[in-house]
Amino acid sequence: MRILIVEDDTMLSQTIQAVLEKEGFSVDAVTDGASGVDYILLNVYDLVILDVMLPVQDGYQVARTVRAKGCGTPILMLTARSAVDDRIDGLNAGADYYLPKPFDVRELLACVHALLRRQGGQVDTLVYGNTALELASSTLICGDRRMRLSAKEFDVLRLLLQSGGNNLSKEHILTCVWGYDSEAVENHVEVYVGFLRKKLRSIGSNVRIEAIRRLGYHLEVDGA
Amino acid sequence: MRILIVEDDTMLSQTIQAVLEKEGFSVDAVTDGASGVDYILLNVYDLVILDVMLPVQDGYQVARTVRAKGCGTPILMLTARSAVDDRIDGLNAGADYYLPKPFDVRELLACVHALLRRQGGQVDTLVYGNTALELASSTLICGDRRMRLSAKEFDVLRLLLQSGGNNLSKEHILTCVWGYDSEAVENHVEVYVGFLRKKLRSIGSNVRIEAIRRLGYHLEVDGA
DNA sequence: CAAATTTTTCAGCACTGTTTCAGCATTCTG
DNA sequence: CAGAATGCTGAAACAGTGCTGAAAAATTTG
Asked: Are B182 and B97 found together in one domain?
């Protein structure tokens, strides 16, 4: 995670930098508004800590400028001016958080983490062999080939993936997917395993669903 | 934009609600922590305003609970306790902003806007494929062809655009567009998806609304 | 108030996913 | 080895979802 500090008080700037680096961030620092704008627009930072009182261009202008250019990097605004109107101006200029000086270092860190938390957000998938199952969309992925699974197909495959190569009895799959007291019979599982095998093959997966007589099914990776 | 207020002081709650509604937001309010959690987890709100001092479960617990369940709705935390440690606790519990009482209404609004900006991005049009949705005028744009959307059409499409290709269940669309406890049934969503498809086609968009059986809808770009 | 637009309702069609079933293949058992 | 049990597969029947067009109801606009 890269953080940019825009602050003309070099003592303070260095302190913050040290603290953040200790937390594992990669930190750059500049001392005036104009360079601040240039650096922010590089679009390589995950967060900007921006002082309001700056030479050349003040923090409000910096925020407004980069926002106007469509830059969405989160901005944590820092300042000694703590009047309500200043805070409102800061937020309206495009800042994401307004922290009045003097502040506690721990509070700064909490803010930084809160702002960065928002950045994340990746899709979760189950992976096995050269193949992945994207949970949100019930999609089977192998390289650049994608294939959608039906609800039951998805349930069965997810179960197999989650048990990571371990054996699952048809009984067990039946109760998990079709429910505790359903009419469903073991052939249902066999049919769906058939469907899944066909789909896995058709997208070039190296994952096989192996049957063991009387015991059930489990996953294996081809050529291993 | 839907906002949830979790605040036991009903006077204050109603004041905030009035202000926000005047700004054009759709606002719900609950008065204790436990219901707060339930409502937030519906995942239909764009922002939560959360008081710290609450019956049943305090604001910190509420924030921690919903975050633990993977809910990413922005939280604006509101409280009379303004000691540094309280602020740090709030942020670490999963809040996105900490606003000490008493606060200026304009400051609250500035915070709300700052937090929401991040959601939709600071944009007035949402773009997908060769097509754009102009928020201010509810207009669909593709090349030089323009088409007006009705209120509900707009809401549904905006939701789909904001989730950027991710899947949304009919349930979810229903609660977001028609509200938590409305008579609306899933066929409503189907009908509106039909309307939108027709309009998208008629202006030559390459954006398709794809249905996944049992799962819901999501956007895709033709020929990709 | 009338006209136009938007929203809701509803019935029937089309399609996809699910279940059923019969026959074949394979493995196990005595 | 024969017969039984188990697993696999394709075809057909069935059920549930989603789609659509038309019309009624509600709402907005002129």
From this structure: no
Interface size, chain A vs chain B, as Cβ–Cβ contacts under 8 Å:
75
Asked if residue B98 and residue B17 are part of one domain, the reply reads yes
Q: Which helix (H) or strand (E) holds A141?
A: strand A139-142
Whether residue B107 is found in the same domain as residue B167? no
Separation of CA B142 and C1' D25 in angstroms? 33
Looking at CA atoms only, how far is residue A8 from chain B in angstroms?
25
Last residue of a domain, one of B103, B120, B137: B120
Preceding amide of A74 cis, omega within 30: no
The verdict on A103 and A164 lying in the same domain is: no
Helix boundaries (H) for A42-185: 59-68, 84-93, 105-117, 151-162, 170-178
B12 and B112 in a single domain? The answer is yes
One domain for residues B16 and B87: yes
CA angle A19, A21, A24 (to 5 degrees): 120
- The Cα-based distances of B79 to A87, A102, A111, B47, B76 in angstroms read 17, 20, 17, 17, 10
Task: List the single best residue of A60, A84, A137, A158 to mutate versus B (max B Cβ within 10 A).
Answer: A137
Closest residue in chain A to residue B109, using alpha carbons only: A88
What residues of B are in contact with residue A91 (Cβ under 8 Å)?
107, 110-111, 113-114
Residue A210 pairs with which residues in a beta bridge?
Answer: A218
Q: Measured between CB atoms, which of A67, A118, A121 is closest to B96?
A: A118
Q: Tally the domains of chain A.
A: 2
Q: Which domain holds residue B166?
A: 125-221
My answer on whether B78 and B185 are in the same domain is: no
> Does one domain contain both A132 and A212?
yes
Q: What is the pTM of this model?
A: 0.74
- Per-residue tokens: B221: 């770009």
For the stretch B32-64, pLDDT in tens is: 999 999 999 888 898 999 999 898 899 999 999
CATH number at residue B169: 1.10.10.10
pLDDT-based confidence at residue A224 (cuts at 50, 70, 90): low
Protein residue ranges contacting nucleic strand D, Cβ under 7 Å = A 170, 186-187, 190-191, 193-194, 197-198, 211-216; B 170, 186-187, 190-191, 193-194, 197-198, 211, 213-216
Which tens digit of pLDDT belongs to each residue from B78-108?
Answer: 988 767 788 888 899 999 999 988 888 889 9
Q: Do A88 and B96 touch (CB under 8 A)?
A: no
Phi, psi (5° rounding) for residue A39? -65, -45
Domain-ending residue, one of B80, B100, B120: B120
Closest-CA distance, A122 to chain B, in angstroms, reads 11
